[in-house]
Design goal:
Helix content: 40-55%
Structural class: alpha/beta
Number of domains: 2
Number of strands: 15
Distance between the termini: 68 Å
Radius of gyration: 29 Å
Strand order of the largest sheet: 1-2-4-3-5-8-6-7
């Protein structure tokens, strides 16, 4: 073996009492999580009863190596002077009684400046699937470090040379325990300078977590009476206080920023009147709310949030992405009204994908004119609110701990949702045939996902992950289609926004973009103005292109066999779907309540159409 961090034979110290071991075993028997420290010598963490444990024994602890083990739901990290024999024997007996076998993974760092080989010390005999999974997982690190290699060695010695084995052969046989040793090169730091490569370490952190879970799952699948359906179920179910606090602080900063409110003109209606009077020949002059926060102070608070202390790589990834989004939004507030606003926004919302622009143009070619809605009956604010209240009552029963409310207000344009409130303009007048579609859009999508998210332990589930608008709006528009209320004008509006964003990014002025919509795509003067205003607000905001992109994302997701019910778990984007599924498998998140409109036979038929795959233009047939 290559030299490890321990160089001298250690004198062990009976630091773990029989009372301590008895307490641990009792909690296992009662299916209780374990987080127990023994003096200042180490810690035992077992999130739930599982037939494996990771062990790291140290002379001088490497906190970054410990961080790798802490990605797992079962680990012991201890000073090498501690005798773990009796604790592990009792654990093995308890776990083998349930699962017929037990796996101990001893891991240790190789402190070598130029070492990059992962050593897997496996049992002698037939090569287990677990060994192959470890080998494949560590080899995948070559994508970020070309020097990484792996070496499998079948050996009786599966522990650091300077230490005794965690369990002798006789005890292993008696308790049906399999021992693996894994020596990991400290490629996450410059050993000589003691400098950590933080960005690389984050990726290693994630790949290590995934590799160990997959390898352990192979062991469980083949060797045990397997109660786990998916390797993701081996992840932690407990969310610690550091994680919850980081999540809470991020949500508070995001909510207090009111980004869209502070980047939307307060005089858009007045400027529309002037724009008309001037025959659409002079660029409007927009005014904005004063910014009542200091972006610099908010950034200071943002980066004081200890996301680096979050042990769970999945949740850390989510929180880090949200922090980056908030940082960019704060920078955009500082740059509001300048060209820099647009450039930072481009990095936040991304460029328009070719298929989205192509889809928008196809829609506008297929439906070159707006269409009058069928039926003359219209609903005012009171009438619409009465219909919406029936839907709100249904969801209020599903979420009795939350307060769902409808407000008719004079300071709202049209209909919008704020958390669990449906806000309706007192001047509202809508076609009666659109009422159901709008209610399913606002209540059965936006309010429902908020309520589902609010029921979860992570505040980001209702405050919104990075880029959550895209999936939210796609899902909401799809609800209109499913209940048979999606109109030509609605899809034309989404397509028009994409075309307008593309024009703005390409260098067109406000007036040129307005004329493109008005002349080439036959939008009414008023609609063309408001689309253009939204795209040019603040200095140029590309956000409006995500709505049609979201519709296309949901269509693609369902066509590939994705379950629509899952998308109501909270407010996230399509890039987060795999992460949300993992957290659901692990039991960190609860399964969502679903919209009642999904029970309608017509909706089920339309969902079947989506599973077969349809074009954007088919949403109107």
């Amino acid at each position: 073996m290559e030299s490890t961090q321990e160089t001298d034979t250690e004198i062990v110290d009976k630091a773990i009492s029989s009372k301590f071991i008895e307490k641990v075993c009792k909690r296992i028997k009662n299916d209780k999580p374990i987080y127990e420290k023994f003096a200042d010598k180490g810690v035992v963490f077992i999130d739930k009863v599982m037939p494996y444990v990771c062990v790291y024994r140290y002379k001088k602890e490497d906190e970054y190596f410990s961080g790798l083990l802490k990605t797992q739901a079962s680990y012991i990290i201890a000073d090498s002077s501690v005798d773990l024999t009796e604790l592990l024997t009792q654990l093995a007996e308890s776990m083998s009684e349930r699962f017929n076998t037990f796996l101990i993974l001893e891991l240790w760092p190789i402190i070598n400046q130029h070492g990059s080989t992962f050593h897997i010390y496996a049992p002698k005999g037939k090569t287990l699937a677990t060994t192959k999974t470890f080998e494949e997982g560590f080899k995948s690190l070559r994508d970020i470090n070309v020097f990484v290699s792996t070496k499998v060695e079948k050996s009786e010695i599966r522990h650091p040379h300077s230490l005794e084995s965690l369990m002798d052969t006789k005890t292993c046989k008696r308790t049906a325990t399999i021992l693996y040793g894994i020596a990991i090169p400290a490629i996450y730091k410059d050993v000589e300078k003691d400098e950590v490569y933080y960005l690389f370490y984050r990726k290693l952190h994630s790949i290590f977590s995934e590799t160990v879970k997959r390898a352990v799952f192979e062991f469980i699948r083949v060797q045990t009476s397997n109660p786990f359906d998916n390797y993701l179920m081996l992840g932690k179910t407990q969310v610690d206080n550091i994680t919850l606090q980081a999540d809470k602080e991020l949500a508070e900063i995001s909510e207090g920023m009111s980004f869209l409110l502070r980047t939307t003109p307060v005089n858009s209606h007045e400027e529309w009147i002037k724009f008309q009077e001037r025959n659409f020949k002079r660029t409007p002059s927009f005014n904005y709310r004063l910014i009542a926060i200091d972006p610099e102070q908010e950034k200071r608070k943002l980066f004081n949030i200890p996301i680096d202390k979050v042990e769970d790589p999945t949740i850390a990834y989510i929180l880090r992405g949200k922090r980056l989004e908030i940082e960019k939004q704060l920078t955009m507030l500082e740059e509001r009204g300048t060209s820099n606003f647009k450039f930072v926004g481009n990095s936040l919302y991304g460029v328009i994908k070719k298929d989205v622009l192509k889809g928008a143009k196809k829609l506008l070619r297929a439906y070159p004119e707006s269409q009058d809605q069928l039926g003359d009956e219209r609903l005012n604010s009171e009438e619409f609110a009465a219909i919406a209240q029936e839907e709100m009552n249904y969801y209020q029963e599903l979420f009795p701990e939350q307060k769902l409310k409808i407000e008719i207000r004079e300071d709202v344009a049209g209909i919008m949702v704020s958390k669990s409130k449906l806000l309706i303009s007192d001047q509202l007048s809508i076609n009666a045939k659109r009422a159901d579609a709008l209610i399913q859009h606002e209540v059965a999508t936006h309010i429902l996902t908020y309520c589902n998210g609010k029921s979860q332990p992570l505040e980001q589930m209702y405050a919104g992950f990075e880029g959550y608008d895209q999936l939210q709006e796609g899902l909401a528009v799809l609800a209109e289609y499913l209940v048979g209320g999606l109109t030509v004008n609605r899809l034309r509006l989404l397509a028009g926004r994409v075309v307008a964003v593309n024009a703005m990014v390409g260098g067109d002025t406000f007036l040129e973009t307005f004329r493109l919509l008005q002349k080439k795509h036959s939008f009414s003067d008023r609609t063309a103005y408001y689309i253009t205003m939204r795209v040019f607000r603040g200095g140029g905001l590309t956000k409006d292109a995500v709505y049609l992109a979201g519709v296309m994302d949901v269509l693609n997701y369902i066509k590939k066999g994705g379950e629509i019910e899952f998308l109501y778990s909270g407010k996230f984007n399509t890039v987060h779907i795999g992460l949300i599924k993992e957290l659901l498998y692990r039991g960190v998140l609860k399964h969502p309540k679903t919209p009642r409109f999904l029970e309608r036979p017509q909706v089920q038929q339309r969902l079947e159409n989506l599973r077969r795959g349809i074009e954007l233009t088919d949403l109107l047939t």
